[in-house]
Each structure stands twice: as structure tokens, then as C-alpha cells.
Design goal:
heterodimer, A: 263 residues, alpha/beta, Rossmann fold, nine-stranded mixed β-sheet, two-stranded antiparallel sheet, 7 helices, B: 323 residues, seven-stranded parallel β-sheet, elongated, binds flavin-adenine dinucleotide, binds adenosine monophosphate
Chain lengths: 263, 323
């Protein structure tokens, strides 16, 4: 099975406090720690496990800047066979449709049976997989938390739905699936693994190689545009307890007692 | 020109989802004069009462009754919607596991714009619809402009638009079953498997000590367990803790886990994503312990402590034990 996994390099929210820059047009990017989108690790792990079971290959692909190469290498260190970097100045500020169009153009140049994305990334949009599937005219399922290969044309899949229930379906290949966290336990990648793939060639494709026109992508092709970042004026928020640990603990205990928090 | 707005009504076991009362208000924020049509798709006897119910909120209801809609398979529904909706309309869908499945592809097929997980709408100005969303798990908000000249599909965050309980619409129900031409789906629904039950039912507990990714290591869960014991409650958790297999799925609070209704909820190292908070109901006394003073959890909590939980919690536990 030829599997393509779409991945994205994102600021690691577990490592950073996200702050808005003074102009309000971006987040503060200096000193941010980046990593591969949490959901994408699960998608790559699933692809590797499927390949190891039924044969074939795993390709990882991303739309991003030069620095996005590092996440491709990381996932190749996990066990993906190939990486493809889709990069061009014209791609900057693409909306979701633009990103999906760029990915589609690259997919049209290959032959893939199964395309995986993460369920969502840093912007919380959860849109790329569904858009891509519609552009490719492939069937789609989101939030997949189980995959079983039935034969070379059909998968049995589980989707996670509300309340921890699982919706079981069959789906025809080729198809696009978005992967939910928890589907597997992504393997650990050490520095050694990354060094091993450090010199593997990663092809870069831009606008002309993909046969796209500048008005389809980037700012020019976007119908959806982020105007600014801001901190909303919300209600009062929490009362922050001040003082040293002992004082704070004592204050909290009084409050907990009053609210039935200590039996 | 008045905008034609459509609201997809989700329903389960014959009951309309809460979002059905919210989408109408999102529509009114796009255009107070808009004609808003509820889309009620399904099959069988439960459909007519659902349409009648929707007609109390929406001036127009389009009913689509087909056998293949006995289970809401987004692949089938997308095909029907493409055949039914006008190209320049605006379609609103709840941002939940169904909406995420249906909506992005629908926007491509209708050749319209798409904005996901809208939390507020500031109105339309010509062809520009001004929406508000969040990024990075709710740590920052953004204004997002969407060109609606060729229509739009929006997914709307549940709970963001106050429900319209007035039920004063007395709308008209139109059967559109024939107009919505069937399509062949390559994804076939088989069954729904129920969530596994755990040894403790966190949905019945009054005191929950809930841990998130900020707990850092599996060994640290013991810190929370000791506190829960001292308080007379039990430990629950956020999703990453379950993904890491540190706790059972039955302990997970949130939209894809359990809905809990405690009196007191301690959120330790939990950022407060809407999917987590979506499982915390009944207006409990929420206490958040988090090293990041800007974490969204401090908006939901009544009391906050900006400290490392591994320092603070053992101290708190000691003091409670001394009582
Ligand atoms: C369809 C779908 C369904 C989902 N369903 C659920 C669900 O049911 N339940 C759920 O929880 N999530 C769910 N999620 C995931 C959700 O989007 C978030 O990713 C998740 O809730 C984040 O968990 P967290 O707050 O523990 O981790 P994070 O967001 O990583 O937050 C960790 C927090 O810990 C703080 N911290 C770090 N170190 C310390 C320390 N030493 N002391 C104190 N604080 C510290 C950090 O400042 C941060 O705020 C779902 C996602 C999707 C896409
Ligand atoms: N720039 C990108 N390059 C490659 N894949 C992407 C990109 N952006 C999003 N994706 C994929 O789409 C998934 C969902 O992201 P999103 O739709 O942005 O929430 C991610 O987990 C990736 O698999």
C-alpha cells in the first residue's frame, strides 16, 4: 500500500506560552520551540504500522518554509521512507483551501492508495483532510481511531464520536482519513535516528513544478483571511490566589470547605 | 438582497441537539434579516416531530426523508446537500465530530468559502463576513474575514451563541426529499460501539481532581491521587493522559470522554480547551493550578493558582490531612 501522510510544523504549545506580538498581526515567533503537529505523529505511526503489515511505502509531505524540512526528517527517522517539501514564496498565507490545493497538485503527480492527515493542527481548523478528499473526489472519514485492512480495495475503520463511542464503517480505497490521537503509541525518535536520515535527499517542489498558478494559492487565492490576533475582553476570570505556597494552600482550603470540596 | 442561511439540525434518537437552538442566533448575527432555513435530514417516524420542533425556532424547515439517512453518514449527507443547496447560500453546521466530517468537503463541492469553529460573528459588510475564532487551543483569538460572494460553509462552536428558547417561529415545513437526489457513498456505516465502562463512574462524583499534560510524568499522577483521597474525591483527566495510556479512557473528561457534573472540579495542568471544558457541566466550583497565567482555563475557573503543580499539590494535600 502506498501511503502519503500530510504533516505540519507548528509551535509546540506544551513548550511555549503563546503571546501576541506588539503589532497584533502575529504571535511572538522569537524563541518559539517548533515540533511536528501532535496529531501528525499518530498518523505517521499508523502509516508505518500499516506498511509493515501489508507492504508498500510511506511518504511524508508538508507545505511550509525551508525550516519545515526538519519535521519531514523527524518523521523519516520514525520510519517514513520518503519526504517531499512543498515550498514557494507564493504559498505564504494560503488559506485552508489553498493548502489543500497545493497538496492535491503534489498528489496528482504520484500514486497513493491511502492519504492520512492529522485531525487538526495549531489553528484548530480540522479542515485540510476533508477539503483534500473533496478535491480528489476520494471518500473521507475524520477522527479515525482504528484502521484494519480488509483487502486491497477496502478498509474497516473506526471513527471516534461523542462520549467516547466508536462509529465503525468500511471505506473504499483510495481514500483520505484524518487521524485522532490515541489510535496508537507513536514511537520515540532519538537524536541517532535523526542523524541517520540527515543526508537523505528531500525533493522540493514549488508553484511551477506543481503546475499551479499564483492566483490559486497564497494571499491572492485566499477567500478566508486572518485580520489580526487579539486577547478577547472576557469576564472577570479567575481570582488568582497570591502569597507563598503555604498561604495559598490555606486560603484554598477555606474556599474548598465552603464549597463542599473536602468531605 | 437577503442572505439565505441554512442551519443543519443534528439529532440523536429523535431529539434535536442543543446546537439546533444556537445556530439560529449565529445566523441572525450574520444578517438580522436573513431567511434562515433548518435542514432536518433523517428517516422514519421520528422525523416529522423533529421538523415540527424545528419549526418553532426556524421560519422555514426543509425535511429530507430517506432510508439511507437512518444513520447520519456524512458522506451521504454531503452528496444530498450538494444537490439541494443554492451555490451562494451560507450553511451553518455544529463544530463537532459530525460537522468536522461533513463541512470542509462540502465547502469545496459547493465552491464556497469555509471557516471552522467560529466562536463569534461580528456581521457582514458587503461580501465580507467578519468572524472570530481561536487558535493554539484557545490561547489566542483572531478576527477572520471570509468572502461570501460565492457562499460559505461555517462550523459553529457549540455553546458560543446563546440558545433561542423563545420557540415563536411557527415555521413552514417543506418536503425536499425528491429535490435532494441520492448519491452513492463509498463509505458504508456498520455500527456504533459504546464506550467501555471503568471501575469508577466519574460522572457521578462530587469532587474531581483532574490532571492534564502539565502533570509531566506518569509517576506524578500519584500526587493527584493522594489529594483526591484527602479530599474524598476521585481522579479524572484530560485526553493526553489517556492517549499516553496513563489512565483509563473512562476517566477522561470532555466531549470525546465523560460529561461530569461535580460540585468541585480541580484542573491541574490542564489548559482548558473547549473539548475538555465541554465535558464539565453543572456549574461547579472550578480551581485551576497552572504555571501559565494566560492559560484559557483561568477564564473558566473561579479560583486560580499560578504555580508548579508538583510543588503546590503535595503541600495542599499535607495541609488537608492535618485538618
Ligand atoms: C475531536 C476532538 C475531541 C477531543 N476531546 C477531548 C476530550 O474529551 N477531553 C480532553 O481533555 N481533550 C479533548 N481533545 C483534545 C483537546 O483539544 C486538547 O488537546 C486537550 O484537552 C489538551 O489537554 P491538556 O489541557 O491536558 O494539555 P495542554 O493543552 O498541553 O495543557 C497543559 C497545561 O499544563 C500547564 N502546565 C505545564 N506544566 C505545568 C506544571 N508543572 N504545573 C502546572 N501546570 C503546568 C501548561 O501551562 C498548559 O496550560 C479533543 C480534541 C479533538 C480534536
Ligand atoms: N501546511 C501543511 N502541510 C501539510 N499538511 C498540512 C498542512 N496544514 C495542515 N495539514 C494537515 O492537515 C491536518 C489538519 O490540519 P488543519 O486542517 O490545519 O487543522 C494536519 O494534521 C496535517 O496533517
Amino acid at each position: 500500500m502506498e501511503i502519503l501522510v500530510c504533516i505540519k510544523r507548528v509551535p509546540d504549545t506544551a513548550e511555549n506560552e503563546i503571546e501576541i506580538n506588539s503589532a497584533g498581526n502575529d504571535i511572538e515567533r522569537d524563541d518559539l520551540v517548533y515540533s511536528v503537529n501532535e496529531w501528525d505523529n499518530y498518523a505517521v505511526e499508523e502509516a508505518i504500522q500499516l506498511r509493515d503489515k501489508v507492504g508498500g511505502s510511506v511518504t511524508v509531505i508538508t507545505v511550509g518554509d525551508e525550516e519545515s524540512e526538519e519535521v519531514l526528517r523527524r518523521e523519516m527517522a520514525m520510519g517514513a521512507d520518503k519526504g517531499i517539501l512543498l515550498t514557494d514564496e507564493a504559498f505564504e498565507n494560503s488559506d485552508g483551501r489553498g493548502v489543500a490545493a497545493i497538496l492535491k497538485a503534489a498528489i496528482d503527480q504520484g500514486r497513493y492508495d491511502l492519504i492520512l492527515t492529522g485531525a487538526q493542527a495549531d489553528e484548530g481548523a480540522a479542515q485540510t483532510g476533508g477539503m483534500l478528499a473533496a478535491m480528489l473526489e476520494y471518500p473521507y472519514a475524520s477522527l479515525v481511531n482504528e484502521i484494519e485492512v480488509l483487502d486491497d480495495k477496502t478498509l474497516k475503520i473506526g471513527r471516534e464520536i461523542e462520549g467516547g463511542k466508536q462509529e465503525v464503517s468500511s471505506i473504499g480505497l483510495p481514500c483520505v482519513l484524518s487521524i485522532q490521537t490515541g489510535i496508537n503509541e507513536p514511537r520515540y525518535v532519538g537524536i541517532r535516528g535523526i542523524r541517520k536520515v540527515a543526508s537523505v535527499d528531500i525533493p522540493e517542489l514549488g508553484l511551477s513544478e506543481l503546475g499551479l498558478s499564483a492566483d490559486q494559492v497564497g494571499e491572492a487565492g485566499s477567500r478566508v483571511k486572518r485580520v489580526d490576533y487579539f486577547v478577547p475582553e472576557t469576564g472577570e476570570g479567575a481570582e488568582i490566589l497570591e502569597g507563598d505556597t503555604e498561604e495559598v494552600a490555606a486560603k484554598l482550603i477555606e474556599m474548598l470547605k465552603a464549597r463542599g470540596g473536602i468531605k | 438582497m437577503t442572505t439565505h442561511i441554512f442551519a443543519y439540525i443534528e439529532h440523536h434518537e429523535g431529539l434535536a441537539d442543543d446546537s439546533s437552538l444556537e445556530l439560529v442566533n449565529a445566523a441572525r448575527k450574520i444578517d438580522p434579516q436573513a431567511q434562515v432555513t433548518a435542514l432536518v435530514f433523517g428517516s422514519g417516524d421520528s422525523l416529522d416531530p423533529l421538523c415540527q420542533e424545528a419549526a418553532k425556532t426556524y421560519t422555514e424547515v426543509w425535511k429530507v426523508d430517506k432510508q439511507e439517512l437512518a444513520y447520519p453518514n456524512a458522506e451521504i449527507i454531503r452528496g444530498l446537500l450538494i444537490n439541494l443547496l443554492p451555490k451562494d447560500g451560507i450553511c451553518l453546521v455544529p463544530h463537532d465530530t459530525f460537522g468536522m466530517d461533513l463541512a470542509p468537503g462540502l465547502s469545496i463541492k459547493l465552491n464556497s468559502s469555509f471557516v471552522a469553529d467560529v466562536v463569534d460573528i461580528e456581521g457582514a459588510d458587503g461580501d465580507t463576513l467578519k468572524t472570530v475564532r481561536q487558535e493554539f487551543g484557545g490561547q489566542v483569538s483572531t478576527h477572520v474575514n471570509c468572502n461570501i460572494a460565492q457562499g460559505a460553509v461555517l462550523t459553529v462552536r457549540t455553546g458560543s451563541f446563546p440558545a433561542d428558547e423563545s420557540k415563536s417561529a411557527s415555521g413552514r415545513v417543506t418536503d425536499k426529499s425528491d429535490a435532494a437526489e441520492s448519491v452513492e457513498a463509498r463509505r458504508t456505516f456498520q455500527e456504533v460501539l459504546e464506550a467501555e465502562m471503568g471501575e469508577v463512574d466519574i460522572s457521578k462524583e462530587d469532587i474531581l481532581v483532574s490532571v492534564g499534560r502539565g502533570i509531566g510524568e506518569e509517576e506524578n499522577i500519584e500526587i493527584a491521587q493522594e489529594l483526591a483521597e484527602a479530599m474524598g474525591g476521585v481522579v479524572s483527566c484530560s485526553r493526553p493522559i489517556v492517549d499516553a495510556k496513563w489512565m483509563e479512557k473512562s476517566r477522561q473528561v470532555g466531549t470525546s470522554g465523560q460529561t461530569v457534573k461535580p460540585k468541585v472540579y480541580l484542573a491541574l495542568g490542564i489548559s482548558g480547551s473547549f473539548q475538555h471544558m465541554g465535558g464539565v457541566k453543572g456549574n461547579p466550583f472550578i480551581v485551576a493550578v497552572n504555571t501559565n497565567p494566560k492559560a484559557p482555563i483561568f477564564q473558566a475557573a473561579e479560583v486560580g493558582i499560578v504555580e508548579d503543580l508538583t510543588d503546590f499539590i503535595p503541600e495542599l494535600t499535607e495541609k488537608i490531612k492535618e485538618l
